[in-house]
Amino acid sequence: MDKIELKTILAQTIGKEKVVYLSNIVANHHIPVKELIDLTFDRDDKVSFRAAWILENVYVGRLEDFLPATSYFLTRFASQNNLSCRRHYGKILALMTKKNAPKAIKDILAQHNLDSLVETAFAWLIDEEVPVAIKSHVLNILANLSAKQDWIRDELLQTMDYLVDKESIAFFAKVKQIRKQLKASS
User: Fold this and answer.
1) Tens of pLDDT along the chain (186 residues)?
2) Among 13, 80, 87, 93, which residue has the least CB neighbours within 10 Å?
3) Phi/psi zone of residue 29: left (φ > 0), alpha (ψ -120 to 50 degrees), beta?
4) Domains in the chain: how many in total?
5) Within this chain, do residues 120 and 179 fall inside the same structural domain, yes or no?
6) In terms of domains, do 177 and 102 share one?
7) What domain of life does the native source organism fall in (predicted)?
8) Domain limits at 146?
9) Do 28 and 105 fall into the same domain?
10) Residue closest to 95 by CA, chosen among 147, 53, 59, 70
């Protein structure tokens, strides 16, 4: 299977089983992860969403296959404008920035300029058009990165204070969880 054939498949409705199957095909090097990342920017929103869904599955299930494309993913993160894709991108980056992330991921992140990621995360957090599911991942990202840069913690607390009355109950619950995480880490 090549990128063109994958794109044809992604243009059709697929379920979780097919996503897992396609994740394994990508992970077995039939399609480079970098090309899958490129498909998450396809003009067809359905193709890009399904590609992002597969990308998340590759990260979660076949990290060793995702690793060679990690820097490319981090570089492309800020330019993802499709809200459906942002949900998967946000989840992947939240997993990458966790305390218990694999050492290989931590090493790549240590070599990457985090400013662009932090700036993008804050932009997504304050954007009224961004759904709470994405904001939930963004809160995790920023809380996780606050251990690396102190100023993020203060800015995140101020931003959460500002947004908590403007957002949904689900957002409020997530903010409560993040406050506990930040308090425990300070």
Assistant:
1) 888 888 999 999 999 999 999 998 887 767 899 999 999 999 999 999 999 999 999 999 999 999 999 999 999 999 999 999 999 999 999 999 999 999 999 999 999 999 999 999 999 999 999 999 999 999 999 999 998 888 999 999 999 999 988 888 888 999 999 999 999 887
2) 13
3) left
4) 2
5) yes
6) no
7) Bacteria
8) 114-186
9) yes
10) 59
